[in-house]
Fold:
Amino acid sequence: MDLAVPTTPIALWRPDAVVLYDWLMSVDLGSVPVTHPAERQALMDLLTRLEETDVAGATQQEIDEAREAVAPERDWEPWGQHSLAALPDPVLGVPPTYREGDRVRYVAEPVFDVLVKPGDTGVVVQVEGHDVVVEWPDTGQHSVPLVSVRPDRTQ
Structure:
Protein backbone atom coordinates (compact mmCIF):
# COMPACT_ATOMS: atom_id res chain seq x y z
CA MET A 1 0.00 0.00 0.00
CA ASP A 2 1.33 3.45 -0.97
CA LEU A 3 1.39 5.77 2.05
CA ALA A 4 2.60 8.78 0.06
CA VAL A 5 0.77 12.00 0.83
CA PRO A 6 -0.91 13.44 -2.27
CA THR A 7 0.56 16.80 -3.28
CA THR A 8 -0.29 19.58 -5.68
CA PRO A 9 2.63 21.29 -7.40
CA ILE A 10 2.38 25.07 -7.66
CA ALA A 11 4.69 27.64 -9.14
CA LEU A 12 4.93 30.96 -7.32
CA TRP A 13 6.39 34.16 -8.65
CA ARG A 14 9.53 34.51 -6.49
CA PRO A 15 8.61 37.99 -5.16
CA ASP A 16 5.23 36.57 -4.03
CA ALA A 17 7.02 33.70 -2.28
CA VAL A 18 9.44 36.08 -0.53
CA VAL A 19 6.61 38.33 0.66
CA LEU A 20 4.49 35.38 1.81
CA TYR A 21 7.39 33.77 3.67
CA ASP A 22 8.31 37.04 5.39
CA TRP A 23 4.69 37.63 6.39
CA LEU A 24 4.15 34.07 7.61
CA MET A 25 7.32 34.31 9.70
CA SER A 26 6.22 37.56 11.34
CA VAL A 27 2.45 37.25 11.73
CA ASP A 28 0.79 35.74 14.79
CA LEU A 29 -1.05 32.94 13.03
CA GLY A 30 -3.27 32.61 16.08
CA SER A 31 -4.71 36.04 15.31
CA VAL A 32 -5.33 35.43 11.59
CA PRO A 33 -9.09 35.13 11.04
CA VAL A 34 -10.07 31.61 9.98
CA THR A 35 -13.34 29.75 9.70
CA HIS A 36 -11.83 26.32 10.35
CA PRO A 37 -8.66 25.12 12.12
CA ALA A 38 -7.53 23.47 8.88
CA GLU A 39 -7.02 26.94 7.35
CA ARG A 40 -4.48 27.87 10.04
CA GLN A 41 -2.77 24.50 9.63
CA ALA A 42 -2.61 25.02 5.86
CA LEU A 43 -0.80 28.33 6.45
CA MET A 44 1.67 26.54 8.73
CA ASP A 45 2.19 23.87 6.06
CA LEU A 46 2.79 26.58 3.45
CA LEU A 47 5.36 28.18 5.76
CA THR A 48 7.09 24.83 6.19
CA ARG A 49 7.31 24.33 2.40
CA LEU A 50 8.60 27.88 1.87
CA GLU A 51 11.27 27.27 4.53
CA GLU A 52 12.62 24.51 2.30
CA THR A 53 13.27 26.95 -0.55
CA ASP A 54 15.78 29.71 -1.18
CA VAL A 55 13.30 32.39 -0.02
CA ALA A 56 14.08 31.49 3.60
CA GLY A 57 17.46 33.18 3.16
CA ALA A 58 16.12 36.41 1.63
CA THR A 59 17.83 39.56 2.89
CA GLN A 60 15.89 42.62 4.04
CA GLN A 61 16.78 44.31 0.76
CA GLU A 62 15.35 41.35 -1.20
CA ILE A 63 12.20 41.47 0.94
CA ASP A 64 11.80 45.21 0.31
CA GLU A 65 12.33 44.72 -3.44
CA ALA A 66 9.85 41.83 -3.48
CA ARG A 67 7.23 43.93 -1.68
CA GLU A 68 7.64 46.71 -4.24
CA ALA A 69 7.41 44.22 -7.13
CA VAL A 70 4.28 42.56 -5.73
CA ALA A 71 2.46 45.70 -4.63
CA PRO A 72 3.83 48.93 -6.06
CA GLU A 73 2.52 51.74 -3.89
CA ARG A 74 0.77 53.58 -6.71
CA ASP A 75 -1.00 50.47 -8.03
CA TRP A 76 -2.82 49.38 -4.89
CA GLU A 77 -6.04 50.70 -3.48
CA PRO A 78 -6.26 50.90 0.30
CA TRP A 79 -8.48 48.22 1.77
CA GLY A 80 -8.36 49.04 5.44
CA GLN A 81 -8.95 46.44 8.12
CA HIS A 82 -10.99 43.97 6.08
CA SER A 83 -10.68 40.31 6.94
CA LEU A 84 -9.58 37.94 4.20
CA ALA A 85 -13.14 36.64 4.03
CA ALA A 86 -14.34 40.12 3.05
CA LEU A 87 -12.07 40.36 0.00
CA PRO A 88 -13.58 39.78 -3.43
CA ASP A 89 -11.09 36.98 -4.12
CA PRO A 90 -9.37 34.57 -1.72
CA VAL A 91 -6.01 36.30 -2.12
CA LEU A 92 -3.71 37.88 0.40
CA GLY A 93 -4.42 41.42 -0.74
CA VAL A 94 -6.26 43.49 -3.27
CA PRO A 95 -5.27 43.10 -6.92
CA PRO A 96 -3.64 46.16 -8.48
CA THR A 97 -5.92 48.50 -10.33
CA TYR A 98 -5.07 48.33 -14.02
CA ARG A 99 -5.95 50.78 -16.74
CA GLU A 100 -5.96 50.45 -20.51
CA GLY A 101 -2.40 50.64 -21.77
CA ASP A 102 -0.72 49.39 -18.58
CA ARG A 103 2.01 46.80 -19.12
CA VAL A 104 1.62 43.55 -17.19
CA ARG A 105 3.62 40.34 -16.69
CA TYR A 106 1.90 36.95 -16.42
CA VAL A 107 2.96 35.10 -13.23
CA ALA A 108 0.70 32.04 -13.04
CA GLU A 109 0.70 28.59 -14.63
CA PRO A 110 0.49 28.51 -18.45
CA VAL A 111 -2.95 29.20 -19.90
CA PHE A 112 -4.58 26.30 -21.77
CA ASP A 113 -2.67 25.32 -24.92
CA VAL A 114 0.19 27.51 -23.60
CA LEU A 115 -1.29 30.65 -25.13
CA VAL A 116 0.11 32.64 -22.21
CA LYS A 117 3.17 31.48 -20.25
CA PRO A 118 4.77 32.68 -17.01
CA GLY A 119 6.94 35.70 -17.77
CA ASP A 120 4.96 36.80 -20.85
CA THR A 121 4.32 40.54 -20.94
CA GLY A 122 1.47 42.36 -22.59
CA VAL A 123 -0.67 45.49 -22.61
CA VAL A 124 -4.01 45.80 -20.80
CA VAL A 125 -6.95 46.27 -23.16
CA GLN A 126 -9.67 46.29 -20.49
CA VAL A 127 -10.62 44.97 -17.07
CA GLU A 128 -13.73 42.80 -16.77
CA GLY A 129 -14.64 42.10 -13.14
CA HIS A 130 -11.95 39.78 -11.77
CA ASP A 131 -10.30 39.29 -15.18
CA VAL A 132 -8.09 41.45 -17.33
CA VAL A 133 -8.01 41.34 -21.13
CA VAL A 134 -4.42 41.66 -22.33
CA GLU A 135 -2.90 42.00 -25.78
CA TRP A 136 -0.09 39.42 -25.70
CA PRO A 137 2.50 40.10 -28.44
CA ASP A 138 2.77 36.49 -29.62
CA THR A 139 -0.80 35.24 -29.24
CA GLY A 140 -3.19 38.22 -29.38
CA GLN A 141 -5.90 39.16 -26.89
CA HIS A 142 -6.69 36.79 -24.05
CA SER A 143 -8.44 37.23 -20.73
CA VAL A 144 -6.69 36.05 -17.56
CA PRO A 145 -7.54 36.42 -13.85
CA LEU A 146 -6.34 39.67 -12.26
CA VAL A 147 -4.42 37.68 -9.67
CA SER A 148 -2.35 36.09 -12.47
CA VAL A 149 -0.66 39.31 -13.58
CA ARG A 150 1.64 41.87 -11.99
CA PRO A 151 2.68 45.32 -13.16
CA ASP A 152 5.60 45.04 -15.60
CA ARG A 153 8.28 47.63 -15.06
CA THR A 154 10.94 46.17 -17.38
CA GLN A 155 10.42 48.77 -20.11
Remarks:
- Residues 74-94 have pLDDT under 50 and may be disordered.
